[in-house]
């Protein structure tokens, strides 16, 4: 086994320029449970200076003592049990305080793309160190280890800590962001109501855990489907966290809509702006071509085939996920991860003047007459502080109003199905004669 000081990876990151000067200190981050599960017995060293044990066949961290005390913390993984001494870094003044990001379903397909983007600095910026808290289950714990190993091997300078675990009350401790991806996919012949019940329970439990242990201003992005109602369940179970902090991911739909409009107009997709997705992340969603713009011009003036906009375009966005499954054999994972990145970046960077983005948010106080107490995708703007405001003056014509109402009715029906999970009594589930689909269903 080679004993090595943490070496400086090849990069020009300002962190690494400073990290090579750092005195490294170590913390031991293992619960007894995971010590058995994950790692060989832990050697200890009386040294306060770190020696990082690096070998192909062992992830054994070195426990260190500082002032005679072994520092311990629950679940962490391998090299991430060795944390940098951030005090030394503070001298550079250019480093932000470490943020804790939880990801559930961390061994799944979407996470497999997302985690590496988070760790690279692409999302929160090149001066933002992060800790990743990965939530899995007994069935995925081995896979989670594999993910953690790949994160180790990627030598991301901004990634200071990776913890893995199966208990949301441990994994969500002090998190500032919670990206809730893990959910059971709907299988063939399965009713939407059954999915609501199974996944709803997951989000009720996770809401309670966030409420108990997360940072009080945690931002929560629900991806696991049906994401709007799951987000509602989650926020109802987390009364101490502002309801405004909960989002359901509809950014993938926004991105899909921009792409279709760009294709039709023969422009690159960066020319499409002001794209709203209204409503549910389902086939009732409403991609709003009335208010979207291409090169700053209303879409309806650029694309004069209005029948295509009302039918072809709208349906292509609503069912894009299903078409992708037909081709690819599984649901969108890479583009979903990209859209999660976009969704977060839209909250941590100021929205460009005149533009907006779509996200599923709590409807209380909305200016569009949409029923209160739902999570509904609407146009938003952010100052870049993690918060957002609804855009209040978007035009809604009869075409939009009718379709928005349909998506609203669907969400109201979903809400009744999960009343037992939101503290609103006994659930009554009648989703109507036509069982609506997730975008990814064929
Ligand atoms: N909002 C959006 O735009 C989109 C949402 N999605 C949704 O994101 C979710 C995750 O997708 P993806 O990463 O591709 O899925 P995967 O199947 O690859 O991973 C899902 C993870 O969910 C966890 N999970 C939790 N409960 C269950 C359960 N009862 N049965 C099976 N797995 C469970 C599993 O992890 P573990 O065992 O660790 O709990 C699994 O690793 C799905 O709900 C999907 O529909 C997908 C695309 C777009
Ligand atoms: O339906 C699914 O599971 C996947 C999904 O949400 C999408 O592709 O938009």
TrEMBL record:
Cellular location(s): Plastid, Chloroplast
Catalytic activity: (S)-malate + NADP(+) = oxaloacetate + NADPH + H(+)
Enzyme Commission no: 1.1.1.82
Family: Belongs to the LDH/MDH superfamily. MDH type 2 family.
Annotated InterPro entries: Lactate/malate_DH_C, Lactate/malate_DH_N, Lactate_DH/Glyco_Ohase_4_C, Malate_DH_AS, Malate_DH_NADP-dep_pln, Malate_DH_type2, NAD(P)-bd_dom_sf
Entry-linked SUPFAM superfamilies: LDH C-terminal domain-like, NAD(P)-binding Rossmann-fold domains
Gene Ontology annotations of biological process type: malate metabolic process; response to redox state
Coiled-coil zones: none
Keyword vocabulary terms for this entry: Chloroplast, Disulfide bond, NADP, Oxidoreductase, Plastid, Transit peptide
Sequence ranges assigned to domain Lactate/malate dehydrogenase C-terminal in this UniProt record: 250-420
Enzyme category, top tier: oxidoreductase
Main location: plastid
Domain Lactate/malate dehydrogenase N-terminal: 100-247
Assembly: Homodimer.
One Gene Ontology cellular component annotation held by this UniProt entry: chloroplast stroma
Source taxon at top rank: Eukaryota
Protein name as it appears in the record: Malate dehydrogenase [NADP], chloroplastic
């Amino acid at each position: 086994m080679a004993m090595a000081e943490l070496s400086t990876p090849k990069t020009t990151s300002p962190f690494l320029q400073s990290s090579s000067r750092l005195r490294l200190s170590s913390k031991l981050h293992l619960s007894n449970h995971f010590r058995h599960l994950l790692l060989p017995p832990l050697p200890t060293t009386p040294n306060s200076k770190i020696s990082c044990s690096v070998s192909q066949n062992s992830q054994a961290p070195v426990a260190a003592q500082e002032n005679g005390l072994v520092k311990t913390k629950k679940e962490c993984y391998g090299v991430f049990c060795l944390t940098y001494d951030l005090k030394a870094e503070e001298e550079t003044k250019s480093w932000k305080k470490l943020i804790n990001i939880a990801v559930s379903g961390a061994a799944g397909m979407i996470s497999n793309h997302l985690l590496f983007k988070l760790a690279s600095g692409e999302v929160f910026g090149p001066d933002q160190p992060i800790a990743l808290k990965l939530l899995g289950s007994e069935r995925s714990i081995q896979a989670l280890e594999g993910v953690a190993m790949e994160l180790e091997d990627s030598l991301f300078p901004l990634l200071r800590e990776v913890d893995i675990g199966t208990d949301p009350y441990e994994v969500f401790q002090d998190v500032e962001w919670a990206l809730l991806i893990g959910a059971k996919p709907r299988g063939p012949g399965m009713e939407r109501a059954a999915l609501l019940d199974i996944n709803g329970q997951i989000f009720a439990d996770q809401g309670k855990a966030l409420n108990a242990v997360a940072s009080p201003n945690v931002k929560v992005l629900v991806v696991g489907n049906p994401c709007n109602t799951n987000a509602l369940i989650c926020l109802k179970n987390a009364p101490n966290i502002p309801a405004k902090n909960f989002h359901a991911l509809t950014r993938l739909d926004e991105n899909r809509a921009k792409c279709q409009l760009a294709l039709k107009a023969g422009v690159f997709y960066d020319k499409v702006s002001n794209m709203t997705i209204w409503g549910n992340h389902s086939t009732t969603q409403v991609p709003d071509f009335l208010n979207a713009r291409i090169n700053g011009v209303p879409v309806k003036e650029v694309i004069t085939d209005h029948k295509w906009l009302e039918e072809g375009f709208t349906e292509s966005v609503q069912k894009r996920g299903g078409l992708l499954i037909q081709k690819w054999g599984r649901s969108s994972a890479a583009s979903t991860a990209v859209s999660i990145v976009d969704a977060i970046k839209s909250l941590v960077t100021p929205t460009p003047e005149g533009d907006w983005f779509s996200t599923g948010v709590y409807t209380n106080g909305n200016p569009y007459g949409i029923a209160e107490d739902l999570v509904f995708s609407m146009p938003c703007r952010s100052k870049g502080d993690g918060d957002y405001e609804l855009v209040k003056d978007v035009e809604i014509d009869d075409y939009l109003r009718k379709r928005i109402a349909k998506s609203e009715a669907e969400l109201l029906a979903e809400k009744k199905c999960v009343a037992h999970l939101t503290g609103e009594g006994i659930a009554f589930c009648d989703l109507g004669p036509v069982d609506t689909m997730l975008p990814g269903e064929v």
